[in-house]
Amino acid sequence: MDCAAARRLLREVGGPAGPGGELAEARAHARGCPRCQEWQEAEVSWRAALRQALSRIETPLRIKERVFSSLAGARVGAALRKQRRRWTAAVLVLTLAGSAAAGVWFWRERARDGLLVAALAEDHLLYAARSAPAEFTSSDPGAVARWFSEKVDFAVAAPAIPGADLLGGRLCTLADRRATLWLYSRGDRRLSLFQMAAQGLPLGSMRVMRAERGRFRCGHRKGVSVLAWVERDVLFALVSDLPEEEMLRLARDAFRG
Amino acid sequence: MDSGRRRWTILPGQGDQPRLFEECLLPHLDTLYGLARRLTRDDDDAADLLQDTALRAFEKFHQLRHRGAVRAWLIKILTSIFLNRFAGDMDDERRAVATEPLVSETPEAALLRRCDADTVEAALAELPAAFRLTVLLADVEEIPLREIALLCACPVGTVASRLARGRALLRVRLGHLRRAGAEEV
Hints:
heterodimer, A: alpha+beta, 6 helices, about 50% helix, about 25% strand, rod-shaped, B: mainly alpha, Rna Polymerase Sigma Factor, Chain: A, Arc Repressor Mutant, subunit A, 2 domains, 9 helices, globular
């Protein structure tokens, strides 16, 4: 290492009293080089003389008081900010937890809703394809209702869907409960009407349709539509591949006309 | 472990932070105020600078790991605030022309020793801000030039140049002031 490099390092990194490490070589050079020693002494001497010449300026009392008073204010502010941060964090955590719980609940409800629509559509498709879909075959709504009434724990309505022929009924289990399935034929199409106790059934994911005399919900699965409504705590679900508007008209005419 | 060489470690959340901070600040308050006074050349500006330094340091106190480094840390904060606030003053270095050799030699120190404190203060106060800052940080506070360069956001070569020119100008002004003082007498 030459004199210039050693002096540059000593001045830039640590000076005569600086830390070791990369200065070790520069210091070793300075120790063995009379010119660099002279330079270092000049540096030290200059600094010492300057520090000595510049007398210590004492901080006036009023400025000390001002500084410590502002620090006290900052301390209070910091404490308040800390407290506010804690509260904000707590509220945030609670909000996040609440949102997460609501999200989970909503997702589960939607999943359950989806399951109900799927179950209704699948039962319809399963039995509609059969040539003799009914367990109890009769075109008399009263007879079918009587057959059902001994087997389910809710009051069975006996609907007569205009323009559709009743084929009969069968019992099924949907959403962990017994349901009546009324099977109809309308031209070359089949209609299924399910009835079951409505309590606790998830319908939230089904689209709401407002008609003149009530509120209906509509869902789709596997090419068929499910039109559902609740009356006296019984769920009615009409399932077919007919257009929604026609299903709505049939439902209205059968039950509310 | 050598207890004499052991450094204080302040961990975040440990102990009474405000009290610790005041303990750390108090011994360096005069140094900071002196530096602020010499940098700003104004009592009110110096008080503002000192207060802002104390507040900034209090906010960032949790970042300080070693109590031994507190003086340099406080000086850096003060310098940083000064540079932000008085950036315009730093442009005057080009107007200053050093006519003397740039190498510091023992006679310079001798000249310093012959001058009284008021003369040195006056000569220092006449230096352009960039040179004054560099001389104060490097020579009085012994901050390494690389750290000054980081604070001033400029190359270390520029800092070295400012230091050399600042010293030279200081020496020239000291000479003038001494001669003027002698003539008055």
